[in-house]
């Protein structure tokens, strides 16, 4: 960060100071725009460094305009993965159909982006690191609102007061819990669990995904390029969330192994790799649906407020658009009016994209033999058709041009 000293005698109105919890996509994008509108921004992140790696993510529709306005679109174009083939297999490992991913996702060739999550977060961080304070290996311990601001105590013991605080800390947001109570009030479980990890690419895969299905179970290998590793993915249907496994990695491994016991194709090797993986990520497939996204001087953005689930492919795009709308709504408004405008102008876009989940789960993860057969028939028809020119939901919001701060 660079600060400029003013000549003696110069009188200025102090810039409002704000805190963002979470240095992921939503938090870093929000930091960019709030800094642009004259706020003094601090970002607190519980990880000890910027998180790199992770699964590829999509940037589509309205979100493309956000990254263009931020000036990072050319960099993301260079990082575009260009997934070329999506192959579905039956329980015996025989090919059902192979098609271009856009036929299934509604992506627009030559426009929509698919990049590694780490490439996007690094681009966002690079765009703001000289103007924004980042506190890594730290998180909010207590948060108390008053008439003068928000008093925050950090885990390390430091205490600060901010004009506003923003929760961009993901699906299991601690900020949301401070404001609105337990996650269960807003958590909409969609009936699936998944485990993701990386493993050696001994399959000869390149720029493609191969997915194996039986009713209620799916295994996928995702090769983002010609790398030595692939992303492995194991998904399964379950009536209730496995609460006992959430904080126990060994219990997670045991659960996944039991569900996929006896499975064919490459699944036994994937289970073996999962046992040794040091980057295992396990969670449930779910959404966050909230009646409001703010309380007092604190507001939520991205997955913390409206996680759509990976079944929609829109989590990253909603985070980028939400950050733009939240920061812009606060330009030349106080927190109460700004938060109200943010919700009023963004909620319809969020809802229409969250509602896309009804398409994703039925297509990717059928739970009965009949539904799987119907899914396969539909995929064969899609494979014989030209790719659609995008889904209306992805571009359902036209970004407003916000007034500069006066």
Question: Which properties best describe this structure?
Answer:
6-stranded mixed β-sheet, alpha/beta, disordered N terminus, 33% helix, 7-stranded mixed β-sheet, globular, 406 residues
Using only CA atoms, what is the Rg?
A: 22 Å
The amount of helix comes to 25-40%
Strand content: 25-35%
The end-to-end span amounts to 23 Å
Main sheet strand line-up: 5-4-13-14-15-12-16
Oligomer: single chain
Stretches with pLDDT under 50, minimum 5 residues: 1-11
Largest sheet: 7 strands, mixed
Structural class: alpha/beta
- Overall pLDDT, averaged? 90
Number of helices: 13
The coarse silhouette is: globular
Could you tell me the number of beta strands? 18
What does this structure look like?
- With 406 residues, this protein is of the alpha/beta class.
- It is built from 13 helices and 18 strands.
- It has helices at residues 25-36, 62-70, 73-79, 101-105, 117-128, 174-180, 249-259, 267-276, 303-306, 315-330, 335-354, 357-364, 369-383; strands spanning 17-21, 40-45, 56-59, 85-89, 95-99, 113-116, 133-136, 140-146, 149-154, 159-162, 164-167, 187-200, 208-214, 217-223, 229-237, 281-288, 294-295, 298-300.
- The strands form 4 sheets. Strands 5-4-13-14-15-12-16 form a 7-stranded mixed sheet, with helices on both faces. The chain has a 6-stranded mixed sheet with strand order 7-2-1-11-18-17, sandwiched between helices.
- Strand 13 (208-214) and strand 14 (217-223) form a beta hairpin.
- The protein is globular, with a radius of gyration of 22 Å.
- Mean pLDDT is 90; it is low at 1-11.
């Amino acid at each position: 960060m660079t600060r400029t000293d003013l000549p003696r005698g110069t009188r200025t109105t102090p810039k409002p100071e704000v805190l963002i919890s979470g240095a992921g996509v939503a938090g870093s994008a929000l930091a960019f725009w709030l800094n642009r509108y004259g706020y003094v921004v601090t970002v607190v992140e519980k990880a000890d460094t910027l998180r790199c790696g992770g699964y590829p993510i999509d940037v589509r529709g309205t979100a493309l305009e956000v990254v263009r306005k931020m000036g990072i679109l050319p960099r993301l174009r260079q990082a575009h993965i260009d997934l070329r083939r999506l192959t579905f297999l039956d329980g015996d490992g025989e090919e059902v159909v192979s098609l271009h991913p856009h036929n299934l996702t509604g992506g627009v060739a030559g426009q929509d982006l698919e990049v590694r999550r780490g490439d996007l977060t690094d681009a966002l961080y690079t765009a703001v690191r000289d103007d924004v304070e980042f506190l890594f290996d730290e998180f909010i311990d207590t948060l108390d609102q008053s008439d003068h601001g928000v008093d925050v105590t950090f885990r390390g013991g430091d205490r600060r007061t901010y004009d506003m605080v923003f929760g961009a800390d993901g699906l299991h947001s601690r900020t949301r819990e401070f404001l609105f109570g337990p996650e269960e009030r807003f958590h909409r479980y969609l009936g699936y669990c998944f485990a993701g990890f990386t493993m050696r690419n001994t399959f000869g895969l390149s720029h493609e995904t191969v997915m194996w299905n039986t009713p209620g179970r799916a295994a996928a290998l995702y090769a983002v390029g010609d790398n030595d590793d692939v992303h492995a993915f194991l998904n399964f249907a379950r009536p209730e969330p496995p609460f006992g496994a959430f904080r126990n990695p060994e219990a997670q491994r045991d659960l996944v192994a039991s569900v996929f016991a006896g499975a064919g194709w490459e699944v036994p090797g994937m289970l073996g790799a999962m046992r040794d993986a040091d980057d295992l990520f396990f969670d449930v497939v779910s959404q966050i649906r909230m009646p409001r996204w703010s309380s007092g001087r604190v507001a939520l953005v991205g997955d913390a407020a409206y996680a759509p689930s990976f079944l929609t492919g829109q989590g990253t795009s909603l985070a980028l658009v939400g950050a733009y709308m939240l920061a812009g709504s606060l330009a030349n408004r106080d927190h109460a009016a700004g938060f109200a405008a943010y919700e009023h102008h963004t909620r319809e876009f969020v809802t229409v994209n969250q509602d896309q989940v009804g398409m994703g789960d039925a297509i990717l993860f059928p739970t009965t033999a009949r539904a799987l057969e119907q899914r396969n028939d539909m995929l064969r028809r899609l494979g014989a058709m030209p790719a659609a020119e995008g889904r209306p939901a992805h571009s359902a919001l036209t970004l407003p041009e916000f007034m500069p701060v006066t």
